[in-house]
From TrEMBL:
<protein>
    <recommendedName>
        <fullName>deoxyribonuclease II</fullName>
        <ecNumber>3.1.22.1</ecNumber>
    </recommendedName>
</protein>
<dbReference type="InterPro" id="IPR004947">
    <property type="entry name" value="DNase_II"/>
</dbReference>
<comment type="similarity">
    <text>Belongs to the DNase II family.</text>
</comment>
<keyword id="KW-0378">Hydrolase</keyword>
<dbReference type="Pfam" id="PF03265">
    <property type="entry name" value="DNase_II"/>
</dbReference>
<dbReference type="GO" id="GO:0006309">
    <property type="term" value="P:apoptotic DNA fragmentation"/>
</dbReference>
<keyword id="KW-0732">Signal</keyword>
<feature type="signal peptide">
    <location>
        <begin position="1"/>
        <end position="22"/>
    </location>
</feature>
<dbReference type="GO" id="GO:0004531">
    <property type="term" value="F:deoxyribonuclease II activity"/>
</dbReference>
């Protein structure tokens, strides 16, 4: 790097630091930037109780434990609404100074398709930083022109969403993972100034068929504030359950797995391999209140052993046909996140 290039690099770095509060990031319910957050949208039906279907629990590094939100997930005052408003408000989606890409195998206004990875999420970033929101909600988020709209279909079941703020260079890594997952991009903008860095994203948004070097891929990710995450992405060529056949064996941990368990081809708890994947049956939330797995469309897992402190957020259900589809897991050893999710495990199905 030349002296002049180094000079401009530090000028950009100083500008990013100086205007951090104005930079694109995950937002909490006060509209303040946060490094990461997790929301758990509660199902409408719980054991002995019927709720609104739009209540949710919120967690970030500052709350330290689950907080029941005073807002609804279908309002712009919630964490997800405030985060996405950075794209929707003031027609920011027409800006040439940022990139966005939205994907969902069940997009709004289009029919569901199994031709793509079973994956849902979006990215928004500029030359400094941005966020990657991965979630489990079909028909979400809405097209930018329509503003923030939470789908009625997303009220029935439980849903989860993970938002992480990343610096610009981390999005190169994220896009490579999405190549393997092959999400269904239904709305994108990659301005020409970003094309040299994100030509691959442009091709993905155009649904270009691209070759893969392997059938799966691992990428280390670091948040804007230094939190470590690991992304596991499998293509449809890796025909196996991502939890049992890959991550549990690779990390040498038994997993307690929460995925939607209403499909006719749901996979049972698996103890045939050295490391086991055990299906969670009921989730216990603060209150206390329980709900059943078949009322929960979220996808997450925790290590059964407290020492491992592993938590993963995913795309795929433990379901036979989804072994044939692309999808991913984003995992962390953050003890705060692990404690919050491990405490939710009420009953699980042993082999």
């Amino acid at each position: 790097m030349t002296g002049m290039a180094i000079y401009f690099y530090y000028i950009i770095l100083l500008c990013c630091t100086a205007v951090y509060n104005a930079e694109i990031s995950c937002k909490n319910e006060a509209g303040e930037p946060v490094d990461w957050f997790v929301i758990y949208k509660l199902p409408k039906t719980k054991i002995g109780e019927v709720g609104t279907g739009v209540d949710y629990m919120y967690l970030d590094s500052k709350t330290e434990r689950w907080q029941m939100s005073s807002f609804m997930v279908n309002t712009t005052q919630g964490a997800m609404g405030r985060t996405l408003s950075q794209l929707y408000s003031g027609q920011a989606f027409k800006s040439n100074s940022s990139v966005y890409a939205i994907y969902n195998d069940a997009p709004p206004e289009f029919s569901y398709s199994v031709e793509y990875g079973h994956s849902k999420g979006m990215m928004l970033f500029d030359r400094c930083q941005g966020f990657w929101l991965s979630h489990t909600i079909p028909h979400f988020p809405s097209f930018p022109e329509k503003g923030y709209v939470y789908p009625k279909s997303g009220k029935v079941n439980g849903q989860t969403a993970l938002c992480v703020t990343y610096k610009y260079e981390q999005f190169f890594r994220i896009v490579k993972q999405l190549l393997y997952i092959k999400p269904r991009f239904f709305n994108c903008s990659v301005p020409s100034a970003f094309s040299p860095d994100f030509g691959l994203l442009e091709e993905l948004c155009e649904d270009t068929k691209l070759p893969l070097d392997t059938d799966r891929r691992i990428e280390q990710l670091v948040s804007a504030k230094g939190e470590k995450f690991v992304s596991y992405a499998k293509s449809k060529q890796f025909v196996d359950d991502i939890y049992t056949g890959w991550v549990a064996q690779l990390l040498a941990v038994d997993l307690l797995v929460e995925t939607w368990q209403t499909m006719r081809h749901a996979l049972p708890s698996n103890c045939t391999l050295p490391q086991h994947s055990l299906n969670i049956r009921t989730i216990l939330i603060p209150g206390p209140t329980c709900f059943l797995s078949h009322h929960d469309h979220s996808k997450w897992c925790v290590s059964q052993d407290y020492k491992a402190q592993l938590t993963c957020f995913g795309d795929l259900n433990r379901e036979n046909t989804q072994m044939w589809r692309g999808g991913g897991l984003t995992c962390t050893n953050n003890p705060l996140i692990y404690k919050a999710f491990r405490q939710l495990v009420d009953q699980y199905i042993r082999c």
